[in-house]
User: Fold this.
Amino acid sequence: MNDFAIEARGLRKSFKGHSALNGLDLRVPTGSIFGFLGRNGAGKTSTIKILMGALKSDGGEVSVFGEPISVASNMVGIRRRIGFVTEDKELYPYMTVEQVIRFTRPFFPKWRDDLAKRYLSRFELPPGRKIPDLSKGMRSKLMLLLAISHRAELLILDEPTDGLDPLAVEDVLREIVSLAAAEGTTVFFSSHQLTEVERIADRIAIIDRGRAIVSGSLDDLKARYQRLHVVFQEVLRAPVQWVQGAEHVRQEGRSISILASGNLQALAEQARSLPGASVEVFPVTLKEIFLDHVREGN
Amino acid sequence: MLFRVNQSSGVPLYLQLTGQVKHAIETGALHPGEQLPTIRKVAEDLVMNPNTVARAYRELEHEGIIEVKHGSGAFVSQSAAGPTKVLRKAQAVVQTAIERLASFGLTDEEIRRLIENELALLRTEKSREE
Amino acid sequence: MLVMKAWLEIRWRLLFTLIFVAGPMYFAGRSSAEETTRMLDVVSLTWLFCAVYLAGSGIRTQSPFRTTKGLHGSTLFTLSLPVTRLRLLAVRAGFGLLAVVAIIAFSSAAAWILFPLVRAGSTPADFLRWLLTTACCAAGFHAMSVLVSTVLDEMWQIYASFAAIFGLKWLTSKFPPPPSLDVFRVMTTGSPLLTHAVPWPAVSVCLCLAGILFLLAARVVETNEY
Assistant:
C-alpha cells in the first residue's frame, strides 16, 4: 500500500501560449480526503484531466498509486482503480440509468452487483429513466454509484456538489465521508465550496495561477493561522515593521487586520505595545485563508 | 444523533466533539460502560471527516474517559464519572466570572469574544510548547 | 460494453440510411434496362453517404438527436474508463463498418431480388463480386470518415467527408486514372454486375487505404488532448 495515492512534482501545462500549470506539486496521502481549491482558471480541471489521462502534461512527473502515468501501459490499470465524477456530471444522453450501469460493469473486474443494487435503491435512482431526465444531483449520485460498485480505491471528483440542491449536497458529502470511513477510500476533490471542504477534508491544497501556494493538513493550517485585529485611537503615521509571522497585513483607517501564521504571541505583544492599541484575536476560517492567499497574488 | 458540532465556530471540530462526549457522559446520555457510536457513524451523521472523529476519540482515550477495544469499538470508561466533578467545579468558576463581567456592563457577545481570545492565545502557547 | 454504446449511437442513423437508400433504389429499380448503370450511379453515392454517416471515433459521444458542440462531459467519462483509446476507436470503427456492410448487403440483396433488370445479364456469382467490391470501396471511404471524425465535430465531419468525396470524384473525372483503379468507375460502369469480374486493383487499393487511414486515426486519437 503506497503512502500517497497521488504524487505530482513540477507539473506543467500550457495552452496556446497561456500556462495553466506552472510547476504544481501535490501529495495526496492514501486514505485522506483531499480538498483541491482554487479560482476558476487556476488549473484545477487541467490537473484532474492530466490525472485521468485526457491531457498530457508538458513537464513534471505524476504518479498514481505509486505508478508513473507517463508509462502508457500503466494507465488502464490505474483507471481500473479510480472512480471519477466529472464537473458537469454528464453521462451518455441516450442511455437510461440501468443501461449506464450495464455499460460500465464489464470494464471493472472488481464490480459488485449487490452494491450497485443496494445503492440504486439507497440513492432512489429510477433504473428506467433516461440520463437527461435526471437532476444534476441524481446524476452525481449515479456516478458515485458506479465508483462504489467497482470498489474504486481513489475517487477523483471535479466540483462534486456544484449545482446541487442542499439536500443532494448533504447526501453526496455523506457518501464521500462514508466511503472514506468504511473502505479507506482516498478522495481527491476540487471545489469552490469552502465551507464544505472545511467539513470533510483533512488535507487541502490551494492552487493559484498554476502553482500550489498553500498545502497541508487542514487542522494544522487552522491552528497555524489566526487573525489579529488591532484598533488604534488615531490613524498610524508610520507603517509598522511587524515581526515574523504577519503574513497579510491590511490597514483600513484606524484598524489593522493581520493574518498571522504562527508566532501569534510575539505579534500580539508587539501590537499591544503600540500606543493606543487594542488587540483582538479571531480564529480563521478556510475561506479567509483562501481569500487572503489568492488576493495577495494580484 | 447524540452529538452536534458547529462548523463556523472557531473551536476545532475534534475539540468540540470531545466536549460533546464529555457532556453526554455528564448528563447521563452516555453511561459508563456504554458503547459509543462508531467513528464511521459519527462521521456520517455529522458529515465530517472520519479522521477528525478518530482524533477526538484518541484524545478521549488518552484522557481516560473512553476505552477503545480492538474489534468491538469504543466504550465509556467505568471511571468516567470523574470528569463530572471537575466540570462542576469549572462550571462554578465560569458562572462567577460571567456574573462579574456582566456587572461591568459587557454584552454576551463581548464576553464570549474575550473568552475566545484568551483561549486562542492559550492554544498557540500550548502548541508552541508541544 | 463498448459494442452496446456503439449500437445505441448508431441505431437511428442506421434506420435513416436504410430509408435513405431505399428511395433511390426503388426509383432506380423501375427504370429501363439501359439504366442499370444510372441506378448504380445513384446508389453507389448513397452507399458512400452511408459510409460517411455511420462513421465515428468512439471517443467523442455521438448523440443521435442532439448535436453536441465542443466537448461533452460524457467524453471525459469515456476517457476515464480503463480502456485504451485504440480500443475505443477500433470498436466504434469496426461496428460502424459492420453497419455499412450490412446496409450495402441488405440493399443490394433487395435490389437483386426485387428488380429483374438488375439481375439481367449477371449471375449470382456476379452478385457476390458486386457485394465484395462495394463493401471494400465503402470501407476505404468509411476509414477516411473515421479519420476525419477524430479531428472534426459530427456535422463538420460529414461536410468535410462529402467535400472530399466530391473533390475526389471531380479529380478522377478531370484526370482519369487507369480504369482498374478508378474507384468511382468500379462502383458504376465497371461494376462486377457488368464486367463479371472483381476489380482486384481497385479493391486492394481501397483495403490498403482503409488500413492506413485507420492507423492514422489511431495515431491522432492517441495524441489528441480533450
